[in-house]
Amino acid sequence: MTRYLSCIKKVKGVNEDECRNLAKSYLACRMDRNLMAKDDFKNLGFAEDPSATPPTSNSKTGNTSSYAWVFADQRYHVSLTARILVIDLHSTPTSRWTGALNLRAFKLKTSLKDELSGIGKQATANAKESIEWGTNIVGGVRPGFEGEHLGLPVLPTVRKAMEVLKPDATGIYVAAHQATAAIEEAIEAEVPLIVAVAEHIPLHDMIRIHAMLKTQNKSRLVGANSPGIISAVGKCRIGFQPLPCFKPGRLSSVAAASTLRSGLGQTICIGVGGDILPGTTLKDGLQILAEDKATEAIALVGEIGGEAEIEAADWIKEYRTKTEKPKPISAIVGGINAVPGRIMGHAGAFALPGEPSAQDKVEALQAAGCAIVNHPARFGPVLKSMLDGSTPSGYGVGSPSKIASFQRREIHTATRRPASSVIMNCTQQTRSIYLTQSAAFELLQRRGLPVVDSASIPGGGHLLAVTLNRSTSSPCIIASSSVNGDDQKLRSFDYDYGAEAEDLDISVIASQLGLDGDNNDIISSLRAIVTGLVTLFAEKEAYLLETRLVTSKDASPNLAIAFARFGFDDAAHRSGGRQADIQALRDTSVEDVAEVSVEKDGIVYVKLSDGNEGEIANIGTLVNGAGLAMNTVDAIADAGGRAANFLDTGGKATSETVKKSFEVILKDPRVKCIFVNIFGGLTLGDMIARGVILAFRDLDMSVPVVVRIRGTNEKEGQRIITESGLPLFAFDDFDEAAKKAIELANKS
User: Fold this and answer.
1) Which residues, other chains included, contact 31 with Cβ-Cβ below 8 Å and sequence gap of 6+?
2) Burial classification of residue 118, based on how many CB atoms lie within 10 Å of its CB (0-12 exposed, 13-18 middle, 19 or more buried)
3) Half-sphere exposure of residue 209, counting CA atoms within 13 Å on the CB side?
4) Residue 87 CA to chain centroid, in angstroms?
5) β-pair partners for 333
6) What's the whole-number mean pLDDT along residues 368-380?
7) Cβ–Cβ contacts within 10 Å for residue 115, how many?
8) Worst-scoring range by mean pLDDT, 11-25, 92-106, 254-268?
9) How far apart are CA 501 and CA 417, in angstroms?
10) Residue 557, preceding bond cis, omega within 30 degrees?
């Protein structure tokens, strides 16, 4: 409890009395009212009581469970709960994930905006679609109300719903500013499986959630920023995967983000999420799928950022060694051509100091025996070939051929970290706030920390950073005697997020930095700097405070900060309404005008450079979903082309968003062709098609456009493109579409 009291004070900025009242009222620092400031959201959710009599309104499904969905007043933050039986999945119950994940049954909790917002209809359609598909949903919760809604049982509290309906899982669909409290409430209620779909949940809220999860063994979190979990065999969906793409089959997948289709049919697809600190890892998913009897082959989808793929590779090596007939595994890692120091769409798609590059991950997975592909569309033929006993080969299989030189490093394991990916000059980007050197120094000086002009101290120094250990979901201090973060000299020290900085062992950190541990002045100065950085990290919700320390025998203090690169989580302001002072420090004058111009539309646009040998980046890319966008850029490079940009329209793209995307892409004079690659989940294929046509007509476009639409409403989208009468090229196959885009771009 003491730890949570400290957490609340640091993250929420409340005084001691308010802190204790919150903890007392909501147990383990459950929620904060400023997260609930927006009251335009209502909740929709579900639960099931196996002993209850199924409502007659649902008897037509033939299932033995009842279903329900109801609205709840978000101002009181009481969500709807719902339970979904999954398995059936494979007829035998399984409970093998730590945190009591039960593959036999899922409980879905869905939330949606007010109908006037335009999002509620989509969320409702998603819920109805899941029920019609065969997902078992029952009961709901509404504060102060007990009865029925739509002929289904409604209970007044989540706790009572847990007691009576005994739900097994929850899918949280609320917006980011509400998701923290919803997740914490589910943990308090001890819901076994919690699936969080929302993106942009404040990072430090997630750190606190992970601290809560470590104190219990009842709940398992999947996400945040997860597309969900789906079982085509058990007809259960918790998430927004496009149902037309899923049919019972032999393949299962565990993915950092993307939904996908393979053509072989699927058993279970687990989206662990693209958050910086996902609750469930790729390794966790692999363990489940390896034991699942109906799964014959596994697709693994990873991306740049963190070490989850390295840990997965280590597990795969051991699995293949100990298992007589290991299941074939194919893998992809997005971000081979990612821009160093940039966040590529997903909150977690970037490398922190000491983390591996995308190419490191590819090599580790390949060394572990995985067949590497460069686009999700290739999983089907590759895994089919492996199941048939053949060695997969051909275009897009193996190590990607065009990889930036900065990413080539030796293969490493989770116990031997690669060279630091420290980037000293980072461009501002969405989903993070990087301060200029002068702004960072001013922030340090206001806190009484010593700084010195780096120009007066040539080279050298010691690397000291406060950041995150994604493997342990904990904040950490990184120390190295080399400012370049040499992997032999770099070490990470985890610390308790709620602990006081004074409790840290400074002498051990000093030793790792190569400082004189017997010099009291040095130790005293280091303690002050570490304490100040740790406090700043928590109070201002940073994700990276990277510094270069220098020593001087002739100056006082003996230790000072000569360089500072500070990154802060802008979701704290965007979703939580916090850290306005940090937000105000952002200097957009040093940013790319085109990239900044589309932020307000939810578009992530990153301009990419030309090739090393004068190869012009001339293909504009428009993709929904950060993972797929990275894969598209990488696959175009492997096919002999070069993308001019990375563009993620976001998961809730509209026709107008598509038009805005075309506008920003066309501002780049290098673009000679635009490749639209859409995989519909929440994003509808027909809506994207209308957006393409709207843009083509309104913008008087002259560059050719290649369109590939798969997923939700794909046939309608393809029909709209084909019948438009415009010079648009519609494709179903990715390879054919990419080939055409390269041909058109080089012809212009």
Assistant:
1) 22, 77, 180, 181, 184, 185
2) exposed
3) 29
4) 27
5) 302
6) 92
7) 11
8) 92-106
9) 26
10) yes
Q: Looking at the annotation, which residues are catalytic?
A: 346
Place of tokens 């000299």: 489
Portion of the chain with pLDDT greater than 70, in percent: 72
Report the pLDDT value the prediction gives residue 354, as an integer from 0 to 100: 87
> How many CA atoms lie less than 13 Å away from 509 in the CB half-sphere?
30
Rounded CA-CA distance 69/110 in Å is 8
The pLDDT of residue 27 is above 80: no
pLDDT for 7 beyond 80: no
- Please choose, from the candidates 456, 442, 462, 446, the residue with its C-alpha nearest in 3D space to the C-alpha of residue 554: 456
pLDDT at 49: 34
- Structural contact between residues 713 and 685, judged by C-beta atoms closer than 8 angstroms: yes
How many domains does one find in the chain?
Answer: 5
Do 205 and 319 lie in a common domain?
A: no
Q: Whose structure tokens read 């320390």?
A: 549
Q: Kindly state whether residue 423 falls inside one of the protein's structural domains.
A: no
Each residue of 154-206: pLDDT tens digit?
677 677 778 887 877 777 777 889 889 888 988 998 988 888 988 889 999 99
Helix (H) or strand (E) holding 194: strand 193-196
List, in sequence order, every residue forming a beta bridge with 718; answer none if it has no partner: none
Exposure pattern of 522-543 as b/e (b: 16+ CB <10 Å)? bbebbbbbbbbbbebbbbbbbb
Position 397 scores a pLDDT of 67
Q: Which of 4-8, 308-312, 553-557, 734-738 has the lowest mean pLDDT?
A: 4-8
SS3 270: strand
| Bond from prior residue into 733 cis (ω within 30 degrees of 0) | no
**What is the 8-class DSSP label of residue 388?**
T
CATH code of the domain covering residue 561: 3.30.470.20
**Is residue 19 located within the same domain as residue 119?**
no
Choose the weakest-confidence range: 169-178, 333-342, 415-424, 464-473: 415-424
Mean pLDDT across 197-220: 94
No. of H helices and E strands in the chain? 21, 30
Q: Would you say 136 and 83 are in contact if contact means Cβ atoms under 8 Å apart? A: yes
Is pLDDT above 90 for 536? yes
Same domain, residue pair 531 and 489: yes
Q: Which of 548, 583, 618 is the last residue of a domain?
A: 583
Helix (H, G, I), strand (E, B) or coil at 545: strand
Quick one: 466 and 323 in the same domain?
Answer: no
Residue 424 maps to a domain: no
pLDDT at 140: 59
206 and 264: one domain? no
Comparing CA positions, the residue from 343, 329, 336, 277 lying closest to residue 303 is: 336
Whole-number average pLDDT of the chain: 76
* Dihedral, 411, 283, 473, 577 alpha carbons, nearest 10: 110
Residue 110 banded pLDDT, cuts 50, 70, 90: very low
The first and second tokens of residue 459, run together, are: 């080279």
475-479, 598-602, 652-656: range with lowest mean pLDDT: 652-656
Residue 570 lies in a domain: yes
Q: What are the two backbone dihedrals, phi and then psi, of residue 617, each rounded to the nearest 5 degrees?
A: -80, 105
Which pLDDT band, with edges at 50, 70 and 90, does 635 fall under?
Answer: very high
Do 9 and 141 lie in a common domain?
A: no
> Which stretches does DSSP call E strand in 198-275?
220-222, 228-231, 236-239, 248-255, 266-271
The two three-digit tokens of residue 477, written as one number: 């201090």
**416 assigned to some structural domain:** no
Residues ≥6 apart with Cβ < 8 Å to 481: 462, 489, 512, 513, 514
Q: How far is residue 451's CA from residue 553's CA, in Å, rounded to a whole number?
A: 15
CA 331, 335, 339 angle in degrees (round to 5)? 170
> What is the span of the domain harbouring residue 155?
37-229
> 481 in the Ramachandran plot: left (φ > 0), alpha (ψ -120 to 50) or beta?
alpha
**Is residue 567 predicted with pLDDT exceeding 70?**
yes
Transcribe 41-108 into DSSP letters. Answer: EEEEE----TTSPPPGGGGGG--SS----EEEEGGGT-----BEE--STTSS----BTTTB-TTEE--
Contact status, residue 302 vs residue 256, Cβ threshold 8 Å: yes
